[in-house]
């Protein structure tokens, strides 16, 4: 017999997992410092088990429908307000074939305009962020004041039809939430707060979720050859963590993660991953000290092996993590968070606001995601912004870095241990688009609970594409 065949040994499958692991609410109720009531809500809602049509992720026609029927109707995160603190500061937001100027006004309010000269259409500004005393088109010099009023036209004698009342820069709806500036192309859209629904009050209920108390350390942009929705999917469930992020298996939960959708809320959902409890897949079970050590390696590698990382008598891993995380925040940023619960300091808690905005409320992952479509269905732009608390005067916003394909997100120092995790995610994503197109069933299978947030936003997307939600006049 061929010796190569004789040597083949297929590993046994792990035991069938037919019992759901401990729930986040039960873990939170044991914490020494109580979690906020908002985190103790658990919706347990489901949306069935129907397969998902894979072509939603690669069909040019579907992509075109999104551009025509969804993107023009939704509130979109366009700028971080503290990037444009002074009158005349301008941020440029480009998405889905459009370009928008977000401009700080003399009275400190913010206006948004189409970034298109009313002469022959050049973009008025091109840098991501810049300061302008006036909005002068670099092509022929048509000029507007920062409030959008027409200021000057070259050879006015030759433009008898161009007057201040005919050539104001067209304004775009613009509102702010928690320091984030959103725009909406629908003039008659309902307010951002109405669109966000209960997400607003949930965030207001926890003082530490106030992003006015944070500054933007870095924005990291990674173009990826994958559909924007497949990219977002990778960051709104934790089922993939055991296989994709093997180094995180012992330090935190994965399939214990709680997922919340609300039946009357089409635009937001959330998830909460408990740290300090190892993945139930781990066999043999790690010791509590191994769980703490694993988490320290990712969160504060400089503390690895330090005596303070040893569990104290009677201390649980989550109690040790609370103690160590508040110490690290004091050391790194001078902020005293010693009275804050471990759920704030250590657990990653993520909301997503339809269609593509992902703010993490806690400090467990102090970031915000934005998933933008690329030039076609097969490309997207994945952006991660890090927001940190500060003490005293607000530090200036940090740099924007573009990490191109072939470069590693693990090489961006501001991302810390998160960089490796994001890089692992990107490596999956680069194999997604081809894989979905290779499907013979054209059906994707979603879990009933852990991937319910994916199903939820796809259902909302369908409502925009069908016209059921177009102006989001939510009753
Ligand atoms: S295109 Fe702007 S001034 Fe001509
Ligand atoms: Fe991941």
Q: Which helices and strands appear, and what pairs or packs with what?
A:
Blueprint: H1 3-7, H2 24-29, H3 37-40, E1 52-53, H4 60-70, E2 76-80, E3 89-95, E4 98-104, E5 110-114, E6 129-131, E7 135-136, E8 143-144, E9 150-152, E10 171-177, E11 180-184, H5 192-196, H6 198-204, E12 214-224, H7 228-233, H8 241-244, E13 258-261, E14 268-272, H9 288-299, H10 317-333, H11 342-345, E15 349-353, E16 357-359, E17 367-373, E18 380-389, E19 399-402, H12 418-429, H13 432-437, E20 443-444, H14 452-466
Parallel strand pairs: 12-19
Antiparallel strand pairs: 1-20, 2-11, 3-4, 3-6, 4-5, 5-10, 7-8, 8-9, 10-11, 12-18, 13-14, 14-15, 16-17, 17-18
Helix pairs in contact: 4-14, 9-10
Bound molecules: FE2/S2 (inorganic) cluster and fe (ii) ion (FE2).
Give a quick rundown of the structure.
The chain has about 475 residues and is of the alpha+beta class.
**Biggest sheet strand line-up:** 2-11-10-5-4-3-6
How confident is the prediction overall: mean pLDDT?
A: 96
How large is the radius of gyration?
24 Å
The count of DSSP E runs of length 2 or more, i.e. the number of strands, is 20
Ligand set: FE2/S2 (inorganic) cluster, fe (ii) ion
* Uncertain parts: none
- Helical residues, percent: 10-25%
Describe the structure in your own words:
InterPro entries: Rieske_2Fe-2S, Rieske_2Fe-2S_sf, Ring_hydroxy_dOase_asu_C_dom, Rng_hydr_dOase-A. This is Phenylpropionate dioxygenase-like ring-hydroxylating dioxygenase large terminal subunit. The chain is α+β, with helices and mostly antiparallel strands. The protein folds into two domains: 24-56 and 197-466, Alpha-Beta Complex (Naphthalene 1,2-dioxygenase Alpha Subunit, Chain A, domain 1); 76-184, Rieske [2Fe-2S] iron-sulphur domain (Rieske Iron-sulfur Protein, 3-layer Sandwich). 24% of the residues lie in helices and 21% in strands. The protein has 14 helices and 20 strands. It has helices spanning 3-7, 24-29, 37-40, 60-70, 192-196, 198-204, 228-233, 241-244, 288-299, 317-333, 342-345, 418-429, 432-437, 452-466; strands spanning 52-53, 76-80, 89-95, 98-104, 110-114, 129-131, 135-136, 143-144, 150-152, 171-177, 180-184, 214-224, 258-261, 268-272, 349-353, 357-359, 367-373, 380-389, 399-402, 443-444. It has a seven-stranded antiparallel beta sheet with strand order 2-11-10-5-4-3-6, with no helix packed on it. Strands 16-17-18-12-19 form a five-stranded mixed beta sheet. Strand 16 and strand 17 form a beta hairpin. Helix 4 packs across helix 14 (452-466) and helix 9 (288-299) packs parallel to helix 10. The longest helix is centred in the C-terminal third of the chain and has 17 residues, at 317-333. The protein is globular. The mean pLDDT is 96. It binds FE2/S2 (inorganic) cluster and fe (ii) ion. Residues 234, 240, 244-245, 421, 425 line the site of fe (ii) ion (FE2).
């Amino acid at each position: 017999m061929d010796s190569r065949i004789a040597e083949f040994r297929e590993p046994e499958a792990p035991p069938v997992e037919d019992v759901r692991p401990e729930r986040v609410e039960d873990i939170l109720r044991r914490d020494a410092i109580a979690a906020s009531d908002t985190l103790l809500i658990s919706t347990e809602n489901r949306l069935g088990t129907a397969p998902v049509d894979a072509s939603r992720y690669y069909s040019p026609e579907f992509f075109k429908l999104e551009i025509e029927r969804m993107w023009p109707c939704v509130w979109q995160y366009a700028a971080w307000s503290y990037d444009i603190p002074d009158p005349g500061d301008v941020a440029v937001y480009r998405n889905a074939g459009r370009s928008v100027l977000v401009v700080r006004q003399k009275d400190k309010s913010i206006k948004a305009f189409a970034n298109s000269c009313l002469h022959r259409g050049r973009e008025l500004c091109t840098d991501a962020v810049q300061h302008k005393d006036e909005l002068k088109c670099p092509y022929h010099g048509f000029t507007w004041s920062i409030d959008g009023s027409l200021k000057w036209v070259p050879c006015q004698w030759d433009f008898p039809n161009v007057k201040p009342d005919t050539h104001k820069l067209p304004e775009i709806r613009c509102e702010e939430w928690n320091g984030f500036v959103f725009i909406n192309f629908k003039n008659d859209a309902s307010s951002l707060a109405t669109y966000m629904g209960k997400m607003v009050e949930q965030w207001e209920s926890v003082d530490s979720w106030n992003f006015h108390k944070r500054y933007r350390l870095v924005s990291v942009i990674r173009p990826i050859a994958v559909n924007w929705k497949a990219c977002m999917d990778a960051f709104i469930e934790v089922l993939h963590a055991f296989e994709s992020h093997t180094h995180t298996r012992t330090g935190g939960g994965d399939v214990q993660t709680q997922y919340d959708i609300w039946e009357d809320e089409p635009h937001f959902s959330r998830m909460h991953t408990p740290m300090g409890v190892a993945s139930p897949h781990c066999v043999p079970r790690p010791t509590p000290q191994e769980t703490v050590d694993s988490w320290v390696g990712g969160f504060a590698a400089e503390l690895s092996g330090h005596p303070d990382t040893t569990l104290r008598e009677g201390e649980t891993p989550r109690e040790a993590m609370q103690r160590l995380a508040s110490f690290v925040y004091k050391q790194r940023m001078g902020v005293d968070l010693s009275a804050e619960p471990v759920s704030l300091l250590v657990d990653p808690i993520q909301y997503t606001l339809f269609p593509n905005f992902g703010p993490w409320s806690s400090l467990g992952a102090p970031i915000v995601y934005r998933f933008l479509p690329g030039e076609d269905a097969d490309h997207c732009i994945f952006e991660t912004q890090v927001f940190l608390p500060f003490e005293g005067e607000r530090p200036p916003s940090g740099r924007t870095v573009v990490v191109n394909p072939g470069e590693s997100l693990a090489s961006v120092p501001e991302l810390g241990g998160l960089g490796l995790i994001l890089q692992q995610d990107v490596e999956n994503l680069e194999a997604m688009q081809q894989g979905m197109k290779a499907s013979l069933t054209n059906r994707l299978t979603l879990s009933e609970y852990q991937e319910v947030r994916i199903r939820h936003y796809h259902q909302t997307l369908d409502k925009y594409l069908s016209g059921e939600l177009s102006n989001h006049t939510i009753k």
